[in-house]
């Protein structure tokens, strides 16, 4: 495993400054990041729900995309212009109302220009994923 280029505290400071529209509200918490994996938590809110009382797809996609960004930054450092080029999500089961959503992201391949990873989205303490995501990020020349 590579040594992380950014700690959780450094990631939080960077994201508060550079990406406040997604991070500064405190709706997403970085629990860990080590340069290869990360774990994010989005505390439960009724704003997450769609009709029928399940966690909405947009909530899950946004959290998964943000988790990939965090794990990538932990691996490469503060490269704000790294962007998503592909995101595929498979919804596996209903996310339960009243439960936090966790995103466990893992880099599968880190190249000079592209990074590929996967994210498992979990509801509360259940070990069964509610969605599985694969994603590719483009890394700009620095």
Automatic annotation (TrEMBL):
InterPro entries tied to this protein: HotDog_dom_sf, PAAI_dom, Thioestr_dom
Any one GO cellular component localisation term in the record: cytosol
Domain of life: Bacteria
Xref: NCBIfam families: unchar_dom_1
Keywords: Hydrolase, Membrane, Transmembrane, Transmembrane helix
Domain Thioesterase: 52-123
Transmembrane intervals: 66-89
The keyword NAD is assigned to this record: no
Species, as recorded: Afipia massiliensis
GO molecular function, one term: 1,4-dihydroxy-2-naphthoyl-CoA thioesterase activity
Protein's UniProt name: PaaI family thioesterase
A Pfam cross-reference name: 4HBT
């Amino acid at each position: 495993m590579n040594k992380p280029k950014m700690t959780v505290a450094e990631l939080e400071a960077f994201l508060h400054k550079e990406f406040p529209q997604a991070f500064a509200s405190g709706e997403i918490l970085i629990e860990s990041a080590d340069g290869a994996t990360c774990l994010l938590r989005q505390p439960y809110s009724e704003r997450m729900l769609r009709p029928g009382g399940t966690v909405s797809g947009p909530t899950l996609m946004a959290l998964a995309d943000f988790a990939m960004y965090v794990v990538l930054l932990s691996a490469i450092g503060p490269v704000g212009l790294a962007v998503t080029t592909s995101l595929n999500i498979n919804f596996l089961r209903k996310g339960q109302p009243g439960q936090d959503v966790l995103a466990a992201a893992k880099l599968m391949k880190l190249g000079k220009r592209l990074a590929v990873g996967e994210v498992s989205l979990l509801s509360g303490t259940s070990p069964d994923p509610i969605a599985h995501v694969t994603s590719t990020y483009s890394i700009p020349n620095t």
